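Task: complex structure prediction.
Instruction: return structure tokens for all chains below.
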Amino acid sequence: MTTNRSTTLEPAAAGAAPGEPGRRFSWQWLQGFAVRHAMVVVMLFVVAFFLYKSARFGTVENMTTILIAAAPFALIALGQTLVILTGGIDLSVGSIIAASAMAGAYVAKASAGNLLLTVVVAVAVGLAAGAVNGFVVSRMNVPPFIATLGMLTLASGAAYVIGGGAPINGLPANFGSIANTEILGLKIPVILMILCIIAFAIIMKRTSYGMRVYAVGGNRLAAEIAGVKSKRILFSVYTISGVLAGISGLMLASRVISGAPNLGQGYELDAIAAVVIGGASLMGGRGTVWGTAIGLLLIQTLNNGLDLLIVPSYWQDVIKGVLIVLAVAIDVWAAHRRTS
Amino acid sequence: MHTKHSTEAVSTAMLECHGIRMSFGGIPVLKGVSLVLEPGTVTALAGENGAGKSTLMKIASGQYKPDEGTVEVRGEHLHAGDIQAAHRLGVAIVPQELASIPEMTVYENLFVGRELRSPVGLLNRGAMIRQAREYLKPFGLEIDPTVRMGSLPVGIRQIIEIVKATSRGAKVLLLDEPTSAIAEQEVGRLYSVVRSLRDQGVAMLFTTHKMEEIRAMADRVIVLRDGNLVEDKPLQQLSDDDIVEAMIGRELEDMFPEIGTPQDEVALTVEDLVIGDGTAPVSFSVRRGEILGLAGLVGAGRTELMESIFGMRRAPAGSVAVGNRKVALGNPAAAIAAKIALVPEDRKGAGAVLSMSVLDNASLPRIKSFTNAGWINNRKRSGSIGDIMKSMNLKSRGLGQTMETLSGGNQQKVVFGRWLTGPVDVLLLDEPTRGVDVGARSEIYRIIVDLARQGMAVVMASSDMPEILSLSHRALVMRGLGVAGELSKAELLEPSAQDKIFRLASGLEASTKKDIENNDN
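Output:
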């Protein structure tokens, strides 16, 4: 099942598939699979290790915990994937999370629990911040690193301004229902994560918009000569990234029924790590939604498993740092094997 | 074409440029150029580097806005600065730096920007793949449209670019240096693609500075020199010499200075050096004051040979010696210590740091000689580099000017000059005049000849035949990462030398017994 799924979602593999001789299960096939999907193999090893070490790791309850923790990261990692595919980077998503969480909390409190207004305002804050990023990058030609670094600082400041320097507590109880309601046994953020992953996988693989995002990242001049409006594409990816960060911020605030101005701090780095572990090139033009999903799950599984093994949190960071670099090194090696 | 052919009033022209003028930073690049392209014709836009060819192409394709003049496509005014408007009018450009997207597949490249969609709005990949096959078939390209563009040879990618342009209804095709990046065996395929498009009524304009391309493709030749149109005639009315002299604006002989006499002492000895996997070993020696030319096609191994000598790539076997001392292989620092210097082909990639100043670039290889305990002695550095750049006749605003704002010729002078702050016994030059305009070219030649006279052994790889013929004391012809033959000075002076080099390089002829051993592929 995994093979079919991954080949349909990965452009390179989709191209190679028809030429392959019969897909029988053999040692050679297994080697080929390992090289093509190195990160899936790494993931399997990590899961196997935790299953062996911890009895609680494999429980349904724990799997749910991993998914709930992954959801806010998944949204910003998806946005980040689009941005990185165009050859850019969005450093501001962590701060946008904080700004929209604070804005949502503020509106919820002021409107005494008007949920619709709360959601609209929180998402609008993300949209506005993303659109500013997109405008500055695509129209003013400011390098994405700088443009979004500026937004990182700006949005973080705005988050503190909204709360007057303090968290917003004492929110109406229904504010928590945004993230804590269960449908079919899954909480809303988890459902949203699954829907978004599927939606973006389809968009990137099956629509002309997705193809143009790849084209702009692969060779901007070529895309323009072919009639792609590259500025619009660039504007759109930053805007999407901002909207997703806004939703993510709302979910995080709702989960704990409180708005904290330091929410989401440093999340952008985990999101970028997930995208890169997923095999995307920071130069643009290469990467997949499926890859990002794997990268995200790898990071979240590590967080969770190391917690279960009661590894001190500073050591967790050390281990995570090593594993991120190791995982990408393996992928670079596998990519080299793929091409030669 | 449906009315009177004889009258001037009805124009059948596909593309017309009138009085195009263009300057960059106050320097005129085009000084009033007009040209007309008729349907079903191939026009060569010839001229040396810096003559204004690429600029004219970019104006005709709507990328640049000229300071003066107009461009009309089939009678419609082309609003400058809008590639996409030019596209709608049917003008397409295949740029020199390939406009393909290497990470995407062939069919995605063909369809990007005008994707085929199913009724639901999703991509119809199956239809695009089928259609791509249809597009490629008439050009004899038997490739799977689902392979990654980056995995194909450059020549094929370029033809796919042409297919892409014409499949979008381009009636005017501008090819900027179409053969500059492709191997010789792929050129023939390009020629046949161009011919079949001509038969379909497409008007084509291609830039070049190579005679054989003009002869193979063009019906008509336009020559630009220093921004002026100096020739515009059907090909039959022009001899090769007419065209070359129109391009350089003077007699050929004036370009090259007299070369000196080599000394007896051997400076560089290369013995049984293997530069590829399982390729024949290469042996030769170069005396002080001698200029050894390296001829061969793209990919024949000239660059690889130089990089192996300089230690940038590790040769699996063999030895390199300067004088009597062996040089450790695979170690550029050892090569520099042995007084070998390399001026690489790719100036932007390997030769210079373009964002740094002339002074910094020139002092980079021997920066240690300008420092005291790690601190740069700026007075010493500026003095020494200033003297050398003066001797090179460098035209710059000063040593602080950044490299990227210099012309190609002046950049090359800096890349040359930077080695001369210390002793050099062996100078390796890879395409020393690529991207250098005519005027600066003869200065580079003078510098090379002077350095040889001073006692350096020079190895010069070049694709420019006159350079090999006129500057070398001896020439090696390379093929398949080995040496296919050698020509003495006497042989180089014979009228048949060019033909002989070509035959050796393309494997049509194995000249001596030694070469027969080497021709194992």
